[in-house]
Write a structure and sequence with these properties.
- This protein has 25 helices and 7 strands.
- It is mainly alpha-helical.
- It folds into 4 domains: 4-170, Rossmann fold (3-Layer(aba) Sandwich), CATH 3.40.50; 171-292, no CATH class; 397-479, Serine Threonine Protein Phosphatase 5, Tetratricopeptide repeat, CATH 1.25.40; 493-609, Serine Threonine Protein Phosphatase 5, Tetratricopeptide repeat, CATH 1.25.40.10.
- The strands form 2 sheets. The protein has a 5-stranded parallel beta sheet with strand order 2-3-4-1-5, sandwiched between helices. It has a two-stranded antiparallel ribbon with strand order 6-7.
- β3, α5 and β4 form a beta-alpha-beta unit.
- It starts with 11 loop residues before the first helix and ends in a 23-residue tail after the last helix.
- Residues 590-609 have low confidence and may be disordered.
């Protein structure tokens, strides 16, 4: 049976796994050609390890990787058999074949692409596969499968089964995301292909990178088309992060930054200043999301000034820049600056777009979030309600943006202790997101997390724990093993266990959340400060004062640098340090410098428009 951590809610992956096991066990002798499909390399490797362990000792387990330059399945199998006496004696075995996922799809000046070579070998050497009387599990991606069926039909007809393992992660780009750069395919085999088709697995992202490198080599690094290509590739990488499709979150985040930087540098050189403003805005957004506020602020300001100069102050793009800079100021606790800019953006959008526009609803929501964070609940509530009513008029109640505002309003009521009002709104947001996004989506996991916060605050720990665990398991399925949203729920679960006095359960979770926050967001992110404070609280409450003190001091340093000495988060950590000093004095230990997530922890997952 497939490890429970790898299961999907509908059981489709479990069914595929069970069918694969049955197909292998049904034929111990003779060629048994099986095709397994998975876009997530790490998930694939876990499945392979699982079936190899389950099939032994009845089947010997072997692995082989296709050679990139000559991706011949027959040659790879022949080399393996020559090396293994067990296989030469034709004992029962399962041979797992990987490497097809690394093969390039585009020719890029070569007579054949790597994938075309692979398909050619499959088609023309299939008779030779009779030499290998074993179960052969060939792993491919969805993009390769689509083309294999077309280009190696005889090999395809020999299959004894196809086993599809669903995952959110993929290395493929949907055709529709390439529509505005289709010019780059004019000299490729995709020149006559419709990029606007519904194929979700149109092109491996590595091929687009290579195609851009080819343009650089042939047309020079100052070619204006490169600015568009760099910008679009940055957009694609960022969208993959947002949708949970990236194979490696941190690596693809860095690639989004890399290509937006290259776009902005070239746009600046070529005088493409409107495009430059867009790239600067995108770069600032990713820096803000990762807690690099000092890098984000000058970029947001530069984008704002460019749009002001080029488009004027009465333009929707200028309003967007005001809104984005306001969001940065909110993140860094500069609330008065944030409020002024949010209000300016709101009024400008009303004047330019009219009172009944989605951007006006977003501005109302964002201003409400600011007031909510400041504890100005009486001012936040009417703005949320206005935003909700406007979304209802524009989109109806069955829409994702309506669900988002419901979620935020529920969190406002949670902050106020109005749990009976918060709970049904949170539940409604969950149902809407499930309906439109499906059950396997990061936003659904966030909704479950937020409902868990509401239950936890009421002392309904069993229900809260179930939701936190459900949220965590969902995030583990659809996101990276290292992802900020994972850290959020691990933190919340650890916080709840600490609150219950379950320190043995709380400590490893809080350590894990801290490690993830540092790894993903950097040493100086506010989430790191909150994780440090929470872990320090565990150590203080369990009498481990010497371990608590340095963590409090690190948390205080981050809070004061990010928010200032008078911010409530900084004040909370100083208060916790004073509690530690009192405890140490009462215990006869040396004093500490007297100078939570805050004591009333900030909820995670407040999704802003």
């Amino acid at each position: 049976m497939l490890n429970e951590e790898l299961l999907d809610d509908e059981g489709e992956n479990q069914d595929a796994y069970d069918d694969l096991i049955v197909s292998i066990e049904a034929q111990k002798r003779g060629l048994n050609l099986l095709i397994a499909v998975c876009d997530d390399a790490s998930f694939r490797d876990e499945i392979i390890a699982q079936y190899e362990a389950e099939l032994q000792p009845a089947f010997g387990a072997y692995r082989v990787t296709l050679a990139r330059q000559e991706p011949s399945l027959k040659a790879a199998l022949n080399q393996l058999v020559q090396q293994e006496e067990y296989l030469r004696q034709q004992n029962p075995a399962v041979i797992t074949v990987t490497g097809a996922e690394q093969l390039y799809f585009l020719r890029l000046g070569n007579e054949q692409s790597e994938q075309e070579k692979f398909f050619g070998y499959l088609q023309w050497t299939r008779e030779g596969l009779r030499e290998f009387p074993f179960a052969i599990v060939l792993w491919v991606t969805n993009q390769i499968l689509v083309n294999l069926i077309k280009k190696a039909p005889d090999f395809w007809s020999w299959r004894n089964g196809v086993f599809r393992f669903e995952s959110q992660k993929t290395n493929a780009i949907p055709g529709k995301e390439l529509e505005n750069i289709r010019f780059v395919f004019r000299d490729t085999e995709l020149a006559s292909t419709d990029t606007n088709e519904t194929n979700r697995f149109f092109l491996p992202i590595q091929d687009l990178q290579r195609l851009i490198e080819k343009v650089e080599q042939e047309q020079g690094t100052k070619d204006p088309t490169l600015a568009t290509l760099y910008s679009r590739l940055g957009d694609i990488y960022y969208s993959r992060l947002d949708r949970g499709e990236s194979q490696n979150y941190q690596e693809e985040q860095e690639l989004a930054i890399k290509y937006w930087r290259k776009a902005s540098e070239l746009q600046n050189e070529l005088g493409l200043q409107i495009d430059l403003a867009n790239s600067l805005n995108n770069l600032a957004g990713i820096y803000r999301a990762t807690g690099h506020y000092n890098e984000a602020e000058p970029l947001y300001k530069q984008a704002l000034e460019l749009r002001k100069r080029l488009l004027g102050e009465n333009h929707p793009a200028f309003a967007t820049s005001l809104n984005n800079l306001a969001g940065l100021y909110k993140s860094t606790g500069q609330y008065s600056k944030a409020e002024l800019l949010y209000q300016q953006a709101l009024e400008l959008r009303k004047g330019l777009l009219g009172e009944n526009h989605a951007d006006v609803a977003a501005s109302l929501n964002n201003l409400a979030l600011l007031y909510d964070e400041q504890g100005r609940y009486d001012e936040a509530e009417p703005l949320y309600l206005q935003s909700l009513e406007l979304e209802k008029r524009l989109q109806g109640e069955n829409h994702l943006s309506f669900a988002l505002i419901l979620n935020n309003l529920a969190l406002l009521y949670y902050h106020q202790g109005r749990y009976s009002e918060a709970e049904p709104l949170s539940q409604q947001a969950i149902e809407l997101d499930k309906r439109f996004l499906g059950e396997e989506n990061p936003d659904v996991a966030t909704d479950l997390h937020n409902l868990g916060l509401i239950y936890r605050a009421q002392g309904r720990y069993s229900e809260a724990e179930s939701l936190f665990l459900e949220s965590l398991e969902l995030k583990q399925r659809v996101l990276q093993k290292a992802h900020p949203l994972l850290a959020d729920t691990i933190y919340a679960l650890g916080y709840m266990y600490r609150e219950q006095g379950c320190y043995n359960e709380a400590e490893p979770l809080c350590i894990k959340a801290l490690e993830l926050d540092k790894h993903l967001l950097g040493e100086n992110h506010p989430n790191v400060a909150e994780s440090l404070n929470n872990l320090a609280e565990i150590y203080r409450e369990t009498g481990r004062y010497g371990e608590a003190e340095p963590l409090y001091l690190q948390a205080l340093d981050i809070c004061e640098r990010v928010w200032g000495v008078n911010h409530h988060r900084s004040v909370t950590v100083r208060q916790n340090l004073e509690k530690l000093a009192t405890a140490m004095q009462n215990n006869g230990e040396c004093d500490v410098l007297s100078t939570t997530r805050c004591a009333n922890d900030n909820p995670f997952g407040e999704r802003t428009a």
